[in-house]
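hiii, so i know i said id send this last week but things got crazy w the move. better late than never?? heres the sequnce for the chain we talked about at the cafe, plus the structure i predicted for it. fair warning i was half asleep when i ran it
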Amino acid sequence: MRSTATMLRKEWLENPLVWRIPLFMIACSVLLFIAVTNSSALPHNLFFQMSVSGDAGGFSKALGDDVNRLIAGAVGLLSILLGTQYFPRTLHKERSEGSIMFWRSMPVSDVKTHLVKLTFGLLVIPFVCSALVFTTDLMLWLLNVSAEHPLMPLYHQAPLSNVLLNWAEFLLRMVLVGILLLPFALTAMAISQKVNSPLVIMLIAIYTLRWMPIALFGYHGLDQFFSEMFYLPLYAIIAPNPFNTIQEAGWTDVGIYAFLGMLAWTASLKFSRTVR
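okay and structure toks below
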């Protein structure tokens, strides 16, 4: 357990962008919040009227849900982008710097090294980014309760408990997103141990696999497969029911995607046992 904590701390120190970017965005949000709340025209700027026929409560709740989905989608995309830049270089960095030999001398298996890096990229990074969701929802709640006229889109966020519920829901969704990103993460880690620019190689390979069958044979199957798998994590963040997105993508394609992830896991472990 101590070795795992030490390895996670090492990843934290070697990847400052993981916390610097979310911290910068939180700081900007706080400054914007302070500027808005200190504005003398706040009551006039925030008040608006709507004419709604039917259940106004349901309408305001739908608008509020859209706001929450927008926040979760933006922060989730940020988390995915941070993970995308992390996985292709984490093992490659150790090889290029020679620190891989140091870890070989420690009682740490290749499997544990991979699991720690997957935990950091798929769980720690989303958890850090979730602070942005919590902070944004909290500021919207404060803005709503401090305004002279409550904002209709934020009406259902009046209870403070909804801020905590939205944060918890985001974390649960990001756990599912982490599972959906496993094949990509393992593929990037495997390729990074053999080439110097793994992300570029992956982009070229995916582009070729998507468009060559269309150009040569008019076959769109691979293009559809990659499109569905790439958008699957983002849909899992913003969809009302994240599990429906998996079913809509098709269990056959998801199964192929998972099988490719297993091959990447095997290849990455095999590559890690050799030193170039």
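btw Residues 127 and 249 are 26 Å apart (CA to CA). thought thatd interest u
miss u guys!!
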